[in-house]
Each structure stands twice: as structure tokens, then as C-alpha cells.
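Changelog entry: the Iron-sulfur cluster transfer protein NUBPL record was regenerated in this release. Current contents:
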Amino acid sequence: SWPWRPVPYHTGTQTENTAACPLLSQHCRGTACPCLCVPERERLDKQKQHMARGLPKQKPIAGVEQVIVVASGKGGVGKSTTAVNLALGLMANDPHVTVGLLDADVYGPSIPKLMNLKGNPELTDKNLMRPLVNFGIPCMSMGFLVEDVAPIVWRGLMVMSAIEKLLRQVDWGLLDYLVVDMPPGTGDVQLSITQNIPIAGAVIVSTPQDIALLDARRGAEMFRKVNVPVLGLVQNMSVFQCPNCHHQTHIFGADGVRELARNLGVEMLGDIPLHLNIRETSDQGQPVVVSSPDSPEAEAYKKVASAVVQRLHKSSSG
Ligand code: ADP
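Regenerated C-alpha cells:
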């Protein structure tokens, strides 16, 4: 009778199970029966539908073609600096593309400072926030909405509603790429973002230090689990060149990120040197890609940007 249940198959005693298989109209041969998988498959399909109902539906951000998230396992490895210079690098490589920057790091938003932007976004007649623009890049950040984010004791629900606001209530216009500066780590906020919007790919930033690499691996694994393509890894601060004698020192190690990329089977998108120019220009709100566009540091970011575009092409063409 339906639902039909498989019974154990005993070699040589096929007659033991006399229930007729409703799909093949013949005596079922237990676990060896070719129809066995059918009820099981139906059960699994049902379970999948059930689970899908419980998950938030991914809804694209209006006007945005592709979302690139920049993530890191740990704070302080240069994620925000990379996000900003990646966005500027995408535009520097191809002035026809339109790029936006979303600061989803609600705990410590650094985009206002890095992009030299201040003020409250205006509202459109549809009650959407208009991003603030500098260097040709529209930006949105929690830092524009509250005076000082640091004293806020964030609770889970508040974070989610802040993220929801940043994801859904911004008038981006038309963008080829929206670069999202993710909060560091692999917690609920990161998961919620990946489940709410379709993401074209993730860029993971790490220093070559063992402790940072462990967290970077965790980050890559999280994205894989939620089916976000990992575009590749960026190795930051791997080499310091003495400005006087030009001797090169690998302060945090030389090739840790490259090795991790090999282990994970993902691409190495680029290597950004540890350079005073990057730190100073960032602090001044004049990112290196715009303030010293021909410097080797800016070139390194532009190389990352073109590797990202290549990987996006590859993953969209299968
Ligand atoms: P995260 O977003 O991972 O917390 P940030 O991008 O804010 O990290 O960078 C942390 C600090 O390191 C900042 O002061 C930034 O200017 C500096 N920094 C990042 N990358 C480099 C680099 N390649 N060379 C020099 N300083 C860097």
C-alpha cells in the first residue's frame, strides 16, 4: 500500500517481499529494486520544499546588476581598505562601469572616513535614501545615519533591521557592481546578508598570518555552504619594502594566503603590499587608487579588480 516502504533485501530470497511496486508494477525486490529511490526521492524533495519555505527569499537589490561582497575572518586585516580600492579599481579599469559601495559593517563603519563623506542621506519621493557620492561612487553606510555608531549596544534584531534598511531602502540608481564591505567574521549578520540578496561572488581578504588564515578558511567555507561563489582570496600586507634600502621583509609571512587558496581550490586574486602610502591615504579619505593612481600600490588593487571581473565572467558563463 502507498506510501510504499522498502523492506530489507535478502540475497537469494527475493520472494520474501511480495508487495507490488506501484511504479514498476512488479514484485518489489527490496533494496535492490530500481524503484527504491523514487519514494525516497519524493520524501527528500518534500523536505527540501519544506525547508525552503522557512528561509528568507533572496530578492535582488533594485537596479543592481552584480553584488560583490568583501569579507574577512578577522577584523583589522584590511577588508574595508580593499573594498574601497576594489570599487575604485573597477571604475579605473573601465570608466564605463557604474559601481556603488555599501558599508554593511554596522559595528564599525569605516566607509565614511575612507571615502571622505559625511552627512545625512536625502530621501527620494519613494522614501528611499539617496547615497552620498565621492570619487564617482555612491556610498551608503550606517555611519551616515547615526552620529556615533560605537556607543550603540547592538542587539541581534537591531542589527538585522539596520542591515535590512541598508539593503532595501537605498536608491542606487543603476549599478553594474555593488561592492559590499561585510562585517568581519562568520556570524548571523553575514549569513543573513547572504540569504537575503543574490550575491555574484565573495572576495576574502587575509594577511598571511596563521591566525588570520584560519578565520579566512572559515569564511570561505561559510560562503560555500550558502552557495555563494568564492571569487578568490586577496593577500594583504604580505611584503614590506624599506623605503630607504628597498629591502623586502615579510612581516606576517610570505605566502600563507596563496597556500590557503591552493588548499581550498580557489583563485589568488592579488597581493597588496604593506605600504605607508596605503595607510596614510586611507586615513586622509583619499584612497590610493585615486590619490596615487600610478603607484605600484594602486596597480596592485587594480589588478585585483580585473581578476575579480574575470572570475565573475567565468562563473556567469558556467
Ligand atoms: P578591516 O576592514 O579588516 O578592519 P581596515 O581596512 O580598516 O581593516 O585596515 C586596518 C588598518 O590597516 C587601517 O589603518 C588601514 O589603513 C591599514 N591598512 C590596510 N591595508 C594596508 C596595507 N596594505 N598597507 C598599509 N596599511 C594598511
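The mean pLDDT is 84.
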